[in-house]
Design brief:
single chain, 8 helices, elongated, Nucleic-acid-binding protein from transposon X-element
Length: about 350
Amino acid sequence: MAPGGGGPGVKRPKPDEDEATKKLLQNNKYFTWDDPDSDIIVQRCEKEKAPPYFIPDKDLTRLRTLANNAKVTATYKLTGQGIKIVCPTVEEYNKMGRLLKTWKYHFYTHDLPGSRPFKVVIRGLGDFSVESVTAALKQEKLEPLKVFKMTRRDQQEKNYRDHLFLVHFPKGATTLKRLKEIKALDQIIVQWETYRGANRSVTQCQNCLAFGHGTRNCFMDTRCTNCGGKHKNEDCIAETKCGNCQGKHQGTDAQCPARNKFIEIRKKASGPKKVTRVQPVINNDNFPPLPVPVVVPKPAPPKVPIPGFPKEELVRIFLEMSDALNSCVTRAEVIKTLGVFVIKYGR
């Protein structure tokens, strides 16, 4: 038989298991997360919902006129902080973002569900600059979106031997399993791990210092962490002053009253709404007494006389059976005698 004919002893080639798994996950609309240790990159096929834009501007008429002239489909809502823009599709969302930059609006938004970067932490490096770490990654044919130098909370109390770096990769560009195959960067042995994120009560933008959104999607004016002014931190020469509550602390202080106020407002907005119910007045007019049902007792069934033997006849049968049983020797004779009496008088 020709090779590949499927005869005995010939193994048919199995389909690519990774490709089959990938197709299965792509067709599964309930699949919601990636395995960081897996080498399979899955692109979801569910429809993405575009996040809103927020603009600290009250001139809705001008904004609608510009958007309508550019043929951008969107809905608008006036809020206490400005204007909220919601686009029906991702295409309209991207178009609106480009136009807002062209019109030089200050705004912020959030990540698209499918565009959130893959975040990893590199351990083992020295006190390097962000630029040198980025160059070392590119030598390994990696293209990071952003590299951040992380600061430990107890950095001053403990003398750590290494420094941590947070790296953002485009979603689907690589996996943790592939990164772990890179044992060293710039001749220094490193360890890779998934970024878990800090357990923060609220997100604060490091660009405009506002609460509720991240730095990556903020296009507001840059504000100084030290004084709240519209300049970079390294250019600040003013006294410490919070840009959110005007207190004598930095704008990123965890005990800031403005932060706590934002947390309380968000809890009230996201918590269950209290429904005030009016208790009904209970009286005879609203709730009249129910009628008492009349129970008719059922008649007792008539007594049917049970057939039996007269007393004299019972005594005679008992004496006769006693005489017969006294003459029995074996158990079999006793049973036979009883059977005879049952047949004789049981009819």
